[in-house]
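Reopening this ticket.

The earlier resolution said the output was attached, but the attachment link was broken on my side. Pasting everything inline this time so it's all in one place.
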Amino acid sequence: MLDNCFLFVVAMLAGALNSVAGGGGLVIFPALLLAGLPSISANATTTVASLPGYVASLYVYRQEFQTQRRISLLLGSISLVGGMLGAMLLLSIPNTSFDNLVPWLLLLATLLFTFSDAITTRWKINLLQVSQDSGSSLFKVLFIQFLIAIYGGFYGGGMSFLILATLGILGIKNIHKMNALKIMLMSCIDSFAIITFISANIVAWPQAMLMMMGTVVGGYAGAYYARHLKPNFVKCFVIVVGFAMTGYFFLFK
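Inline output:
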């Protein structure tokens, strides 16, 4: 009973984090390890447990998609493919060597997101240009998201910060629109990855079902209250969480 209560509370916290700033998987994954699951199974179960929280958050953020339908469709489609490829890599390649790169990827993503305004101004990239340009700009954006989706399907830790960094460089200034797109893309990545994990029979379903309920509660509540906060405050919170997670992985992983 204590283990179940612990996992449910952790899942609610993770759902709230994912809806606001990301990093929920970095909370669920170690909790499942403490519950006794093998690392590969814990990683797959984390992905399954997180998806319902994304869906709950998407319902709250549904209005933010009205002006971003085309870019959402393009990035979402490429995320589906990348997520499945990443999950297939997880099943075929040991992830111990890749784990060593995680702190550096988190640091890069957090720095990109922190200085995204300056980078956007210098590069003069904006969402309108990407939405209308069928040439090199659009291809570069899709390729970056494809690589992020592969990483997300394979490991997933810090994936939300990489997505936020990419959206920041695209010139999306409003943190709530960024969160809406981020959650949608993470849902696409995880959905096809989950199909792969289920086929491989590596999901711990009792823990997954319990934590799925927790992420729904946390995801809905987090997205609801985040929309009532000032964008600059939420952005600062994202940056703080990003550096905190980066420091944790450098020190303890």
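Reporter confirms the inline version is readable. The mean pLDDT is 80. Residues 8 and 213 are 8 Å apart (CA to CA).
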